[in-house]
Write a structure and sequence with these properties.
Length: about 180
């Protein structure tokens, strides 16, 4: 597995090895010792996936202390435009964002550290997003910021946004605990 830095400190793209033959392919997306060897000593506590139709925007979400978490995300079917925003006030990249396309044809993952908001847009129907987190979901610590308040250039398409995500506070009106 290869680790690639992004413009945001602590946020990495992970390129797993994919083995292909006439039957299809196999991609190992997590191996504890390999992660540790890359300096990523994380203990994942929860894993889930979502299935989205084209244009669904989910985000920008995060968990506040004491249930803040790091997570490793990927797309195992279809494709998504994935985005993170640095909410760490003392970080030199505070308020900056990073985006990339995650898709099932070229497997890669994004490691999102604590103190980041995360979201994505499904670029095709039946896109399957997989999330592995270092803490379990806590409704009391569930938070987010509006998807359109951080200067992110989202894909030019009709977006489908939940009422919950539409009502999140804007970035400038959110006092980050990180």
């Amino acid at each position: 597995m290869e680790l690639q830095e992004t413009n945001l400190e602590g946020c990495f793209i992970l390129h797993p090895k994919t083995f292909r033959d006439k039957r299809g392919s196999l991609t190992k997306i997590y191996h504890q010792d390999i992660f540790k060897g890359l300096g990523l000593d994380l203990s994942f506590k929860e894993e889930y996936f979502s299935v989205s139709t084209k244009g669904v925007l989910r985000g920008l979400h995060f968990q506040t202390p004491p249930m803040q978490h790091s997570k490793c995300v990927t797309c195992v079917a279809g494709s998504i435009y994935d985005v993170v925003v640095d909410l760490r006030k003392k970080s030199p990249t505070y308020a900056d964002h990073f985006s990339l396309i995650l898709d099932s044809k070229e497997p890669k993952m994004l490691l999102v550290p604590e103190g980041f908001a995360h979201g994505f847009v499904a670029l095709e129907d039946n896109s399957v997003f997989l999330n592995r987190s270092t803490t379990v979901y806590s409704p009391e610590c569930d938070a987010g910021i509006r998807w359109d308040s951080c200067g992110i250039q989202w894909p030019d398409m009709d977006l489908i946004i939940s009422d919950k995500d539409s009502l999140m506070p804007s970035f400038k009106n959110y006092d980050s605990p990180f």
